[in-house]
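> forwarded from #structure-qc
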C-alpha cells in the first residue's frame, strides 16, 4: 500500500526472480520450446540506450511466449574479443582481459537491473578459453574440408588499426571501425571459402521471406551479387617475342559480342604485365603506380574521367574474327569476374566513356529505338532487336544471349557462366585479443593443425601495454615462448601461426553454444541443439544485415554439411529494431547529444524507460528520445499500480457475475493484444493497455465499484499484459491482487469469445435538424469516430450538395447534427 515508488519495487523483485528461476527453461519436453535471442553485446563500457531498446523488444517476445505456455530459451552472453579492449590495454599498460571482464560485470549488473528475463545460468563469453577452444575446433573442421585456407593476395588494410579487413568491413572505401581510407597490401592470409556457399546462401533466402525484413534480404542478395552470363575466350595475337595466348572474359551480355570494339584488362593484374609489349611497358608501369592510390569506389565511379594504357596487342573476337585493341584500365577490377572484359561501348556506359576518351569505335548492335549512343554519349541498355550481328540479327536480347552462348559453346570458345560478387571471407587479423588460429608451421611438414586434444591454444597472459601495440605483424609474434613449439607431426622445432581470427568468427556460432553452454565434448550437444534451434526470433540492429547474419548463415550450412546440425537457416525470424536518436540525430560524442541510460533509469525507473522505448514507435522504427515522455510513462505505471489498491473482491472471485461492459473491454484488449503481439505491433498493445487501465479506473470510480469481480478480472489482465513491458510494476500489482509467486509464472488470460461481441446502438444523423441517415455504431464509439462516420454518409453528402460545413454537433453514441455553412 501507499504511494508508487519505482525504487522500492526495483529493490524487491530481482532476488525473487533469481530464487524462483522463472527464466530458466524446463527443457523437459513438457511444453513446446521456443528460442528468443538478442544479438549479444560487445562489452564496451556500460549498457547504452541502444541496448535498452533492443533488449526491451526481445524481452517482450520472450515474456509473451512464456505466458503463452512455451518453454522459452532466452540466454545472454558477451561477444568479448575485439579491438577496443586491446586499445584500452595498450593505454593502461594492462591485459585486455582486465578491461573486458570488468565491463562485462558492469553490463551484467545493468542487465539484471533492467530486468531482462534471461537465463543467467547459460551466460557465455567468447573470450573464455572454454568457448574459444571450440571456435578453434570448428576452424579445424573447416580446414579439413578445404573451407579454411591461406593465400597470398592483395587485401584491405587499415593503416590506422594496422590490420587487414574483410570486404564486409570496408564501408565506402573506409575502415568500418575507424573511418580511415582503406589501402591494399599483399599478404599471406587465412580465408573461409564462403564463395562455395554463394548459391545456397542465395537460394535459402526463400525460406526467410516474410520472416526477415525485406531490406536485409535485399542487402544480402546484393552482397552475394549473382550474375548470369558467359565466359568467352578471346585469342590474343602474338606480338614480337610474346606468344599468342587466350584470355577469358566474363560477360552478362554475350548477345552484344558483335558490338565489342576493344578489350580491357584490369591494370593492377599480373595479366596486364604478361600481355604488355616492350614498347608499352613503361607506360603501363607509370599507370599502375597511379591506380594504386585509388579505392575501388573511385575506380568504378562513372563521374571520373576514364584513364588507361594501350598494351600493344590485339584480341580476336571468337564470333567474327575481328581484331580488338587490348587496353589496361582501372575501371575494370582485378578481383571481379576474370579481371578482363570485352568492351561494348554502345551498350555499356563505362565502355562508352572510355571509347570517347580514347577515340575508339562505337557499334550499335541492339536497336532499342533510342538515339545513337555514339552521338548522344549515352549507352543504350533496354530491350530491342539485334542488328549488325550476322547470325544473331533479328533476335531479341534474351534470344540473342541464349543463341550466342550456344554458338561459343559449339565452337569451344566459351560457356554459360554464373559469377558472384561475393568474395571469400578474410579471417586473419594481426591483433592480439582474438581466437588464436590453431595451426603450426613446420619447415618439413608445412601447415600442421594443432591436434584436437591440445586445444585450446590459449593466448599468452604475459603480454601487456606496448607489447600489444599494432606493428603490422601480430603482437603474438613477439611472444617467443608462445610462438616456438614443436611440430605435432614430426616433432621438430616449429612455430605457431601468430594471427588471430576475425571476431565475427566467434559470433558465427554462439547461438548454438547457448543450447548447451557447459558442454565439454564438442562445441555443442547436438541433441540440445536439435531441441532448441533454429532460433525462433532473433532481434538486433540492421548494421548486421550483411556481416554477422551472412557469416552465421554460412556457418550453419557448413555445420549441416558436417552433420552437426539438421537445419539450413539459424534464425527463422528476424526483427531489426530502430535506433535511439536524440533530437532527430544518432547519439554521438561529437554532437554532444548522448543520453546516459543509467541516468534515465535513476530518474524515471526501469519500467518507465522500458515502457517508453516500446511505446514510442513500432519496433522497426527509430525512437527519438527528445520526443518521448518517460515521465508520462511513469504516471501511467503509477495509475496501473494503484488499481491493485482498489480491487475489493477476493482472489478467485468469479467474474461472470461482474459488469459486462468492463468485461467486454478487458476481453477485447486481451484478444487484440494477442494479435498485435503476433504482428510485432508492441506499441499499439501499450496504447490498448492504457485504455483498459482507464476503463477500469472509470468503473471503480463510477457505479460499478472496486468490489465488482469484473474489476479484479480487468486488473489481473493489466498485470499480465503489463509484465511484457514493465516487469517490476506488473509483479507488484500481481502481488497486490493476492497472487504468488510471480506474474512471470502466470498464464496469458483466456479470451471469452462471447464478450468480444460489441454492443451497438443506432446513431441518428441530422442535417440542419432533419434526420438524413441512421448508423449502427459501437456503444463506446468516440466523438471523433462518430463524427467521421457521419460525414462519410452519402445521404449527408447529397443533402449538403456541395455546401460547406459550419459546424458539427456530436452527442456520442446517439446523435450527430451537421450545420451547413
Ligand atoms: C559486355 C557487356 C555489354 C557488358 C553490355 C555489360 C553490358 P554484373 O552485372 O555486375 O555482373 N565486367 C565484367 N568483369 C568486370 C570487371 N572485372 N570490372 C568491371 N566490369 C566488369 O556486370 C557484368 C558486366 O560487367 C560484364 O558484362 C562486363 O561487361 C562487366 F552491353 O560484358 B559486360
Ligand atoms: Zn613437421
Amino acid at each position: 500500500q501507499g504511494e508508487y515508488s519505482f525504487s522500492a519495487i526495483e529493490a524487491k523483485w530481482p532476488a525473487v526472480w533469481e530464487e524462483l528461476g522463472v527464466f530458466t527453461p524446463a527443457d523437459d519436453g513438457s511444453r513446446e520450446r521456443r528460442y528468443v535471442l538478442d544479438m549479444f553485446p560487445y562489452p564496451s563500457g556500460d549498457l547504452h540506450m541502444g541496448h535498452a531498446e533492443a533488449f526491451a523488444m526481445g524481452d517482450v517476445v520472450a515474456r509473451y511466449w512464456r505466458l503463452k505456455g512455451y518453454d522459452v530459451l532466452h540466454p545472454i552472453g558477451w561477444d568479448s574479443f575485439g579491438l577496443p579492449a586491446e586499445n584500452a590495454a595498450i593505454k593502461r599498460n594492462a591485459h585486455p582481459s582486465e578491461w573486458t571482464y570488468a565491463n562485462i560485470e558492469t553490463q551484467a549488473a545493468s542487465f539484471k537491473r533492467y530486468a531482462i528475463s534471461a537465463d543467467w545460468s547459460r551466460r557465455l563469453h567468447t573470450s573464455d578459453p572454454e568457448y574459444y577452444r571450440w571456435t578453434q575446433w570448428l576452424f579445424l573442421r573447416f580446414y579439413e574440408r578445404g573451407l579454411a585456407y591461406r593465400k597470398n593476395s592483395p587485401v584491405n588494410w587499415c593503416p590506422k588499426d594496422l590490420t587487414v579487413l574483410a570486404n564486409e568491413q570496408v564501408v565506402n572505401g573506409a575502415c568500418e571501425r575507424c573511418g580511415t581510407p582503406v589501402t591494399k597490401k599483399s599478404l599471406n592470409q587465412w580465408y573461409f571459402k564462403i564463395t562455395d556457399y554463394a548459391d545456397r546462401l542465395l537460394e535459402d533466402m526463400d525460406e526467410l521471406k516474410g520472416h526477415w525484413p525485406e531490406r536485409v534480404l535485399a542487402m544480402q542478395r546484393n552482397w552475394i551479387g549473382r550474375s548470369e552470363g558467359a565466359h568467352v575466350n578471346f585469342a590474343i595475337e602474338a606480338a614480337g617475342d610474346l606468344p599468342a595466348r587466350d584470355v577469358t572474359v566474363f560477360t552478362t551480355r554475350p548477345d552484344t559480342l558483335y558490338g565489342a570494339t576493344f578489350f580491357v584488362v584490369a591494370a593492377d593484374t599480373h595479366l596486364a604485365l604478361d600481355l604488355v609489349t616492350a614498347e608499352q611497358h613503361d607506360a603501363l608501369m607509370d599507370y599502375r603506380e597511379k591506380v594504386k592510390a585509388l579505392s575501388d569506389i573511385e575506380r568504378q565511379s562513372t563521374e571520373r574521367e576514364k584513364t588507361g594504357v594501350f598494351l600493344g596487342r590485339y584480341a580476336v573476337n571468337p564470333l567474327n574474327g575481328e581484331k580488338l585493341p587490348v587496353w589496361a584500365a582501372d575501371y575494370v577490377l582485378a578481383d571481379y569476374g576474370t579481371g578482363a572484359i570485352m568492351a561494348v561501348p554502345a551498350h555499356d556506359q563505362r565502355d562508352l566513356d572510355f571509347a570517347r576518351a580514347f577515340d575508339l569505335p562505337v557499334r550499335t548492335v541492339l536497336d532499342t529505338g533510342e538515339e545513337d549512343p555514339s552521338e548522344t554519349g549515352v549507352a543504350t541498355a533496354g530491350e530491342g532487336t539485334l542488328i549488325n550481328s550476322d547470325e544473331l540479327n533479328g533476335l531479341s536480347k534474351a534470344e540473342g544471349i541464349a543463341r550466342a552462348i550456344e554458338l561459343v559453346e559449339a565452337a569451344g570458345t566459351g560457356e554459360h557462366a554464373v559469377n558472384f560478387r561475393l568474395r571469400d571471407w578474410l579471417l586473419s587479423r594481426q591483433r592480439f585479443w582474438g581466437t588464436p588460429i590453431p595451426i603450426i608451421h613446420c619447415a618439413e611438414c608445412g601447415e600442421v593443425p594443432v591436434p584436437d586434444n591440445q586445444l585450446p591454444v590459449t593466448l599468452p597472459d604475459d603480454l601487456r601495454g606496448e607489447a600489444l601495440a599494432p606493428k603490422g605483424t601480430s603482437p603474438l609474434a613477439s611472444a617467443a615462448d608462445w610462438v616456438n613449439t614443436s611440430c605435432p607431426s614430426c616433432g621438430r622445432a616449429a612455430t605457431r601461426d601468430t594471427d588471430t581470427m576475425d571476431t565475427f568468427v566467434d559470433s558465427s556460432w554462439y547461438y548454438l553454444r547457448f543450447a548447451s553452454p557447459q558442454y565439454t565434448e564438442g562445441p555443442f550437444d547436438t541433441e540440445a541443439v536439435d531441441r532448441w534451434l533454429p532460433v525462433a526470433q532473433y532481434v538486433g540492429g540492421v548494421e548486421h544485415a550483411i556481416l554477422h547474419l551472412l557469416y552465421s548463415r554460412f556457418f550453419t550450412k557448413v555445420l549441416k554439411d558436417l552433420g552437426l546440425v539438421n537445419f539450413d537457416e539459424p534464425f527463422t525470424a528476424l526483427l531489426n529494431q530502430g535506433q535511439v536518436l536524440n533530437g532527430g540525430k544518432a547519439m554521438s560524442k561529437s554532437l554532444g547529444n548522448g543520453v546516459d541510460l543509467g541516468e534515465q533509469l535513476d530518474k524515471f525507473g526501469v519500467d518507465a524507460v522500458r515502457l517508453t522505448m516500446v511505446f514510442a514507435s513500432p519496433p522497426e522504427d527509430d525512437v527519438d528520445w527528445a520526443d518521448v515522455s518517460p515521465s508520462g510513462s511513469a504516471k501511467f505505471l503509477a495509475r496501473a499500480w494503484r488499481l491493485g489498491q482498489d480491487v475489493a473482491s477476493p482472489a478467485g472471485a468469479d467474474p461472470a457475475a461482474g459488469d459486462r461492459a468492463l468485461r467486454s473491454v478487458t476481453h477485447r484488449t486481451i484478444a487484440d493484444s494477442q494479435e498485435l503481439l503476433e504482428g510485432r505491433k508492441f506499441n499499439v498493445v501499450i496504447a490498448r493497455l492504457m485504455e483498459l487501465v482507464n476503463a477500469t479506473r472509470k468503473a471503480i470510480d463510477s457505479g460499478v465499484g472496486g468490489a465488482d469481480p469484473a474489476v479484479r478480472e480487468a486488473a489481473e489482465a493489466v498485470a499480465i499484459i503489463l509484465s511484457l513491458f514493465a516487469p517490476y510494476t506488473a509483479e507488484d500489482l500481481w502481488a497486490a491482487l493476492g497472487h504468488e509467486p510471480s506474474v512471470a509464472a502466470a498464464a496469458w488470460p483466456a479470451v471469452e469469445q462471447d464478450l468480444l461481441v460489441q454492443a451497438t446502438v443506432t446513431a441518428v444523423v441530422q442535417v440542419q435538424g432533419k434526420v438524413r441517415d441512421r448508423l449502427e455504431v459501437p456503444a463506446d464509439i468516440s466523438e471523433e469516430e462518430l463524427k467521421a462516420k457521419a460525414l462519410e454518409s452519402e445521404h449527408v453528402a447529397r443533402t449538403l450538395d456541395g455546401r460547406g460545413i459550419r459546424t458539427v454537433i456530436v452527442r456520442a453514441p446517439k446523435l450527430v447534427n451537421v450545420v451547413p455553412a
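QC bot note: The pocket of ANZ (ligand 1) is lined by residues 227, 250-253, 256, 266, 332-333, 336-337, 339, 341-342, 344, 347-348, 419 (CB under 6 Å). DSSP finds 28 helices and 34 strands in the chain.
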